[in-house]
Amino acid sequence: MRYSGLRVIKEALTGHKGWTPQWRNPEAKKHYDVIIIGGGGHGLATAYYLAKVHGVTNVAVLEKGYIGGGNVGRNTTIIRSNYLLDGNEPFYELSLKLWENLEQDFNYNAMVSQRGILNLFHTDAQRDAARRRGNAMILNGSDAELLDQDGVRAMYPFMDFENARFPIKGGLLHRRGGTVRHDAVAWGYARGADMRGVDIIQNCEVTGFKIEDGKCLGVETTKGFIGANKVASCVAGSSSRVMEKAGMRLPIESHVLQAFVSEGLKPLIDGVITFGAGHFYVSQSDKGGLVFGGDLDMYNTYAQRGNLPVVEDVIESGMALIPSLGRVRLLRGWGGVMDMSMDGSPFIDKTHIDGLYFNGGWCYGGFKATPASGWCYAHLLATGNSHEVATEYRLDRFKRGYAIDEKGVGPQPNLH
Amino acid sequence: MIINHPILGPRDAQEFTYLGDASLIERPDPQAENADETFHDYVYLRDNPAGEHQELWYHEQGDRSWLVVTRNTLTHEITDVQLARDAARARGRSK
Amino acid sequence: MSDMTVNSGVAFTSDRAAKGTAKGQSHRLTGGLVERAKPLSFTFDGKTFQGFEGDTLASALMANGVKLMGRSFKYHRPRGVLTAGSEEPNALVELRSGARQEPNTRATVAELYDGLEAKSQNRWPSLEHDMLSINDKLSNFLTAGFYYKTFMWPKTFWEKLYEPIIRRAAGLGSASGEEDPDVYDKGFLHCDLLIIGAGPAGLAAALTAGRSGARVILTEEDFLLGGRLNAESFGLGDMSGMDWVGQTQAELAAMDNVRILPRCTVIGSYDHGVYGAVERLADHVLAPEPGKPRQILWRIYSKRALLCAGSTERPIAFENNDRPGIMLAGAMRAYANRWAVTPDQRVAIFTNNDDGHRTATDLIAKGVEVAAVVDTRADAPTVEGTELFAGAQVVDTKGKLGLEWIRIRTASGVTRDIPVGALGVSGGWNPNVHLTCHQRGKPEWREDIAAFVPAGDIPVGMSVAGAANGAFSTSAALRTGADSAVASLAALGFDVAPADLPEAEDAPVNVTPFWFVKEGKGRAWIDQQNDVTVKDVKLAHQENFRSVEHLKRYTTLGMATDQGKTSNMGGLAVMAELAGKEIPQIGTTIFRPPYTPVAMGTFGGRSRGKEFRPTRLTPSHKWAAENGATFVEVGQWLRAQWYEKPGETHWRQSVDREALATRSSVGICDVTTLGKIDVQGADAATFLNRIYANAFGKLAVGKVRYGLMLREDGICYDDGTAARFAEDHFVVTTTTANAVVVYRNMEFARQCLWPDLDVQIISTTEAWAQFAVAGPKSRDLLRKIVDADHDISNEAFPFMGCAEITVCGGVRARLFRISFSGEMAYEIAVPTRYGNAMMEALMEAGEAFGATPYGTEALGVMRIEKGHVTGNELNGTTTALNIGLGRMVSQKKDSIGTVNSRREGLNAEDALNLVGLKPVAATEPVVPGSHLMAETGEVHAKTDQGYVTSAAYSPHIGSSIGLGFLKNGSARMGERLRAVNPLQGQEVLVEVVSAHFIDPEGERLRG
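Predict the joint structure of the above. Result:
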């Protein structure tokens, strides 16, 4: 079924009887060409592009719970292509370009909204770093503008310019960055993949791999064994737990990142603002809630919940930046578990086990990467080769000494 | 969270700085023939268990002790806290 | 409390005298816990009303016959109150005005005060006539998730047209946009037992625990203790519920070991018995007293916690069940009994359980006409004084801005229209399990009460009593409260007996689950704020959004400001029925903190404005401030950036002057912010040998050496110096930025890697004030300061020397012959308390040489001229090779990072090398952050050859100069490149030169 305004009107006039399931609930087949473990944004995007771009449709997406229930359903919805390093920026630029055409491509309004992202700087050294980054973005085909204090003030006069502990000196503005209705991304990809024949199997947990003579033959699941030519793990947040079943140790730790939403408000903040002197970034959803976050809770965890000190830390920063938020109320906070990698950058790679592939390590940048991650993972699965913008995302890069360390903090995952 | 410091008693985890897996104590022998391999694994690979985890916390806003805390990463329950110095010696580290 | 009128049960009457001074309060009943002697004046949408002390905004509006208080989120339907508590989804207002405006404030918990101002929200132009109520007419097009299916063509219209319209229509209230004038505090509390909720269970628990001597904290979100006892007409033993509450409160208040916190909501349950709580100190007055906080965020450390949070009534969905006047039956009863108000003088009740009957009985006793009790149960018990329709349902309602009549279908199948102005609805009660689930516990279903109750996976140390645990009768609440307190305290070693408790009602629950009326083609609301109806849930099911999380996300059910406290159960039940499953099979969504919304200011506390972070001042800050310094933030430090002299109109003039004066004579700079670490012990040298990549074992006593630290991954970590004052004593310096982390890492190495080395370390950054004294006249200047018995001649104290000395006639000091500027230079350290005086002494001693204080800018100019790296270069991805120090990394010893520094990627042939950059045209600037490209050819990422890390105007070179990283740069001296800055449309032709712009041989250092 094709979605359109006309279809909405027609259904409204005929009692909404014609709407069909957005994806089926099929029984798992005995064997697939490709099994994707994980029905999150990346897994569903991979299935979608496998089917759409590469014509590989004998594909199953196995999801432990319900699709979109991981970090694609639990993030701060930001998309951007504002990376510094050559290993990253072309990838995220591809991702942003895919976002820009996504809705028409998969016929689902995910509310991609390029509202602009402003990264504030507060010192000369931060300004120099912003300039280097902005230039790297432009050289990679992305967009960037350097604003001085007046430029920032013109955009967001309500920030603290008069009494700030760390005065705002300016900002790096990335106009094509913005926000997306996160859940809709999972559903749109799911619907598009399902429509092309991909089986989405919910409530199906992978409990083990069948590996013989160095080759992966399929997976054991709570619904029985399912065979496959290729098995593709795509379970960021749980990567270590899943890959451990294949005997692998990863350059990844699991950490929780909290995020928050305020009560709904009339329009207040137009774009995305990132504080440069504290842990705080904020945007406002179309529904009116301020969506904001900050730093990790810092300790290894799989608990999907955080503690009070980080809530305070984030909101202290928020109050320092925007003092008029004092009487706005926090409605809800939540926690998502991140694959924090050793250099803050992800992996899209084959493993040493034939037929077993790995996608993970997205830290807290996975949401914006969703389209390109799916695109490149599908490319790898279909062709056997890394996509040209994902050539650095190899599992052996640390062994070779090619970390992609945007923040320059070294092999300590919680600092990235 | 509250960490029961072996010397100072219960302390809010906010006083501490977290490092990570206590396996970081087990720095390999740099002179060994396979040091390239062992140092890669030591620096970059983690068990990252869902369950009991021995990990390093530093009492930065306190007595500057490094501690090895045994904590469950699913429930956050802490079952053991030791001075890292003692834990390191128990793992065979000396000079 | 004694001056409040206790529920008297006096009948509703038109006698004005019986209503006290209830001017205009047409819907005020007799009795209640309002203070009639204290009338309060307030405004709603500009109109003035009267209420009483003890009222909430909602009860006061109700007293004045106001039913319409808001508009719903999506369809802009008229909304009145649904509840009498913090679970309210409908009656949201903008409270106060100006900078104190609070959007989305629940009228049901906003305490009335004299002069209160409130405005309705999410409507235009007025609450009565809201243009966006057009959405209601279009509702058939605006079903769940409709927006995912449209607004996609033409592509550009989403951002340009549709989304802006949606954004303007969405949201609820408006933020003030002004800085919050109030202050907020944070505090820490400790207790043996935290009791959350002061209803019958909580009070019984507090009495029991308090008498044991344990440290008890009792919190209550309401401004009165008592919970439902304030809303009920039955007594406890031989006294009224309120009298028992008053007596209990008095006893608790007299106990030193009990702290009672009314107006305090426990918002979250965190690990290890830590609870967050918000105490509202000044929300019930016009403004906080000057200097007093509005609210306090408490972090409560409890050994045990007892949740006595009561329960929340749930509605029944039926067609047009959202009109103002339709409310929860328990709320209607609370308004009548506690606040002596009724939404209308003629009401009806719709219920599936016995509790709904209580409302009928109590309202009748108050003189309100109860036109009908509609009970879904065929075997419903009778109620005196009204007509009972057993086995009947309310199937529709009418009324424009408020309820006018209800249509019921009786057991025999006929419909009847009953004119009423209000309807009390009861679908049963849900235990308030939220805090038991904040650590991801899942509640379990109890069939006998048709509700979820806490399961076994509640937070460690917590127990649950009373209605929160499904013990709904007053008697059971009292008993389980006391018993749970005994059990909790027994676990802590307190031997205590339950408090003696009064007799109380012990009625069984008697509920027959009934969630929604199936009759009718119209809309039946489940989530009244977000306008989610039964139809939406059905559509979600039809489209395969069948898991509870999908349902929530697709329909927005339960995502409103009440987080679904009154709506989630209904949604679950409808979904369960559609899916042909039992409710527990559907499960619940995740309960997340905070329990009720919390002002951001409360979490922010005092960390606002200049107080956001501590400010660290250098020891000579006072002197600098008095001598024209402009200060700059360097981490938490404030450092002098430059010192402006009279007549200087541009900062560059000051900076040029400072740099020139330093190189020609002598300059002085406070460098205290650099990290200082004292390292002592027999194995100190061994230790440093492992910390630094370069060798330290053989450093002679009285000498300083530059040291480079790597991370274990082989990347440069930090650089600085180590001075050896004795065989077993070193002083290490770090960069300002890394002072804390380098020290932390050294402690790690000392305690975790080499625990048996005899080495002790301590940070002395704040203990010593340190000054750079740089320039050809530096020695001459120091000679005037350093006490005569210390020989600081070049021979006795050459470059890279260090010594413990005395200055100014016996003041302990340390002198280092080190240089960041490239000049002959010293750093002199004195105990911090002498810092400001030392600055004065140095300036005085240097007067003859024109000694010039210099700030961080001139410091930066001179270090760039000398090619010294700082954080701009050591950016966490830099190798020793990159900065030209590759050979310094000793391969002969074990030090941190050596092994991994050998990896291929860190030793690439075309690796970036640090180079100097000079503009070909001296007038052009070198701009940091520019990327380096070949002199001709395309400019894009693939032709990128490096970047400019630092730049400054060099008054010595007479042009802008820079440092940068360039691929294979060491071999490219003299080459011309473009430094491109497309971000600012800049392109500058530069020449690659040595990074040592000044004195490349280092002769000045040794002079």
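The two ends of chain C are 86 Å apart (CA to CA).
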